[in-house]
Amino acid sequence: MAFAPLFNQQSDKILMKYTLIIFLFLGIFSTKALMTEDSLAGVPIGMPISIVLSKFPSYAVESNFNTTVNDCYYLRSSSSNTGVDIMIVDNIVVRIDIIENSKVTTNQGIGISSSKSEVIKAYPQLIAKTHPYLGQAGQYLTVKLPSGNSIVFETAFDVVTEYRLGRDPEVSYIEGCN
Question: Which residues of 68-77 are buried (b: 16+ CB within 10 A; e: fewer)?
Fold first, then answer.
């Protein structure tokens, strides 16, 4: 009896396609990806959710978000900890959050662990406000961009702990969709 292969050519192509998509996706967010004034890794502010999900199949609605509240919810990667969450309102991307130990940086080289002075040097036109939870130990540094979007850098003890790109008013929400 001859050996029968476990996969045929068709299943091999499908497996290779999904493996390639996963590796490309992980590579985009696990290496230094650049955030522009209107997008990250081909996901612009204003993109419909259907296109995001087709481009990045490992992203799904985060399970602990109530999608009926203000039609606002987050997409989060289910395959890895990318440090990138995507806020959706009315089925379009309105905000991209860079969290945790993400290696994503802005096109000015600012990312998680950048110093407050580096942010000010890169974006001298920013507006600084006291962090609502940390008081004087932290700040929200908001940069209005020519695209109409904004970037908000959150700092604790003069170090960027997270940041986000998005449209107003969603980019200013402190607690996700609130």
Answer: eeeebbbbbb
